[in-house]
Amino acid sequence: MVEIKDYQLLSGEEREFLWEELRRKLKITIEYQNVRVGHDITYKEYPLKVGCIDYIYGDDDDNLAQCYLESSEFMAHFFETYFSDGLYVLEREHECYYFDTFTSFPPVDDEGVWRVNFIPESDTSIFVSRRLDQAWISNFKEKSIIVVGEKLIRYIDNNDIFDFLKMG
Questions:
Q1: Residue 1: inside a domain, yes or no?
Q2: In a domain? residue 126
Q3: Domain-embedded: residue 25
Q4: Taking the model in full, what pTM does it have?
Q5: Contact at 8 Å (CB) between 66 and 58?
Q6: Which run of H or of E encompasses 31?
Q7: Total of domains in the chain
């Protein structure tokens, strides 16, 4: 059976170019696990109230927590509808994907955990619009989500995204 993918895994050169563009346009820098957004860029940080590993696995490390499974569906739909014209998904120093449609979104591992997670799991990850003007950053060190871009911040606040996630 042939697996149909609707995303592109960026090569090393493409990935480096994208990181350079993020540094230039959004002034995002990540040094080890310290995330910084340029002072002249509109962003908002949302601290999370729960431990992210506990949120994913609950009390049993063998099975994914029900709240994570529900949130995964919700967040996949959110990213698909909000970023319908294309989405880059990056994990610091690891994978970098570009989605122009969302049939295979998100890429998950064998357990069903997102390969590049929407919550701060083990590294910093970034979901950024095709135009590189809005972003969702899972900030591992601070256990927070940084939302970049005035329009996206308004959308998040007006639609109670963090209330659904029961995280912020």
A1: no
A2: yes
A3: yes
A4: 0.83
A5: yes
A6: strand 29-31
A7: 1
pLDDT in tens, the chain (168 residues): 334 456 777 888 988 898 899 889 988 887 766 788 888 999 999 887 665 555 565 665 556 667 777 778 888 889 999 999 999 988 866 778 898 877 778 877 787 777 777 776 767 788 999 999 999 998 877 778 899 999 999 999 888 777 755 554
Residue 141 lies in a domain: yes
Cis, bond preceding 106 (omega within 30 deg of 0): yes
Classified as helix, coil or strand, 147 is: strand
Residue 118's domain comprises 7-165
> Do 149 and 134 touch, CB atoms closer than 8 A?
yes
Residues with Cβ within 8 Å of residue 93, at least 6 apart in sequence = 123
Confirm if 30 and 124 have CB atoms less than 8 A apart.
Answer: yes
Taking the C-alpha atoms of residue 70 and residue 54, their distance in angstroms, rounded to an integer, is: 15
DSSP 8-state assignment for residue 35: E
DSSP string over 74-101 = HHHHHHHHHTTT-EEEEETTS-EEEESS
- Asked if 101 contacts 6 with a C-beta cutoff of 8 angstroms, the reply is yes
